[in-house]
Amino acid sequence: MDLQITHETRYDYTPAVESAQHMAFLKPLDTPYQQLIRHRLDITPEPSDRCESHDVYGNPRTFFSLQTPHTQLSVVASSLVRTFAPAPASSVIPWEDVRERFRFHSGAAWDPAAEFVFPSHHTPRHEEFAAYARPSFEAGRPLIKAATNLMTRIHTEFTYESRSTEINTPARVAMAQRKGVCQDFAHIMIACLRTLGLPARYVSGYLLTQPPPGKPRLVGSDASHAWVSVYLPDLPGAADGLGWFDLDPTNDRCGWGTPGEDYVTLATGRDFSDISPIRGVIHGGGQHILTVGVTVAPPGETLLDPVTGEVVEHGAPADDPPDNAASTASSQSQSQEQSNGRQSQTQGP
User: Which of 2, 8, 36 is CA-nearest to residue 221?
Assistant: First the structure.
């Protein structure tokens, strides 16, 4: 399936921001389960410095800085991605065997997945998570079946409710109130798995949604998405980093490497703070208004502009201009954060 994604972010500042530094995770990954065909990142005003690199988990990221006063920042990421259905996952390893594999043993071989066993800021270890998870983790049960059962329970027992949590709502609070958004459900599930000693990571991306019957798809009406992946060391290619099984507790869908071909993976990390779509530090700009619009659709599909009512075509992005070009260099949502020491700016679900 070919999917065109446009992710538009705009900050309006009062008063003007004097200078800023930002990090963006807006370029989809190239994996065995999806192929990045084209990508472009347009930033206005023009950054004084811009470079692309990869973080410790292999996620592409773009750093840019603005050294002139500005009252607005616009970041538009356009990507064309070819996705594939998940492969069959014939894992049978019991969950206790995976837990034992990641206990400390003197002289044991290092497994990179071990980094995702430890707690992180948004996914702490706590007995409350273990108590919730235990009914799914019967003795000797294969990890893939136990994790899938946990995913289904969260989907069934929790209520998806927009604005029921903030971007910094602790996972324990969201679990106690049994409601939240995709980011909360992902953090809760990861905390459950890690508290049991199992490696789990946070996945950010997009999900193709369908408009109501008879209604056109609206520009900017989608949102970014979040889900979970758990490590299954008995899967083929696990030694090469291909042992991750994806689970989406918001929609009760799962699969090896992706929950489905209608998903697009942006980045993976310990929790959302590792891979927030945009985060940064600003000087000035005491108040701000954040506007975010995401469109996910097959390329060429006719869309409707919700403001003007005009019909627009959702085309594929042009290739990035050369590295020396003046303006560039080499649902459910994620966070976009900025900080000036006195406030935090966050896009939340």
Answer: 8
Distances in Å between the alpha carbon of 284 and those of 46, 70, 288, 339?
18, 10, 10, 10
Do residues 201 and 228 touch, judged by C-beta distance below 8 A? yes
pLDDT in tens, the chain (349 residues): 999 999 999 999 999 999 999 999 999 999 999 999 999 999 999 999 999 999 999 999 999 999 999 999 999 999 999 999 998 999 999 999 999 999 988 888 889 999 999 999 999 999 999 999 999 999 999 999 999 999 999 999 999 998 888 888 999 999 999 999 999 999 999 999 999 999 999 999 999 988 777 776 666 557 899 999 999 999 999 988 999 999 999 999 999 999 999 999 999 999 999 999 999 999 998 899 999 999 998 887 767 666 666 666 666 554 544 333 322 222 444 345 554 433 334 344 4
Residue identified by tokens 């050369």 is 322
Predicted structure pTM score: 0.88
Q: Which of 222, 265, 333 is nearest to 86 (CA)?
A: 265
C-alpha to C-alpha distance for 242 and 238, rounded to whole angstroms: 5
Helix axes 182-195, 143-157, angle to 10 degrees: 140
Continuous segment of H or E residues that includes residue 253: strand 253-256
Place of tokens 């070009």: 325
How many Å apart are CA 123 and CA 185, to the nearest integer?
11
Strand-strand pairing, 60-66 and 49-54: antiparallel
Record the tokens describing residue 137, joined without a space.
């983790």
Tokens standing for residue 294: 């995401």
**Which candidate, 8, 4, 84, places its Cα nearest to that of 42?**
8
